[in-house]
Design brief:
single chain; 164 residues; alpha+beta
Length: 164
Amino acid sequence: MEFVPGKKITDLSPLVRMDFDGAALAEDPFRAYLEQILVHGFFHADPHPGNVFITPDHRIALLDLGMVGRILPKLQEDLLQLLLAVAEGHGDEAANIAIKIGEKKKEFASKDFTRRIGDIVAQQKTAHGRTDADRPLSPGGNAGFGRERYPCSTGADPCSVRRC
């Protein structure tokens, strides 16, 4: 166990919060969770605001790893393929992977679901003018999250304090 100096994000005044780059503040935990789930197969399962600290040097720290979730390797691979399909603008593939991951109910309408997912993926692609596959997943590159490079690792500790 290690002491992490800082303040709960909820204890910061609105004025103090204006000094932070909100996009970076959201981006780092997002990437940390991607790495935890897709690379390491476990994740911090209790990320409520009381477990998020801002350190004196403006880094974000996720605290209290008393509750973690585990992801089986097959689900890790399916989730990675789902993210890649969405990022590459392949709506039908994304829908098929989501169907494979999920549990179909009797009233499930596969064709309608596939069409709706295709529409969402197309909107995402159109809104950005490109797919997110063109954007690196980490400051130093794509961190090995491409189809040819799976399984992958960034080499970073998934529970480390991240720069914001």
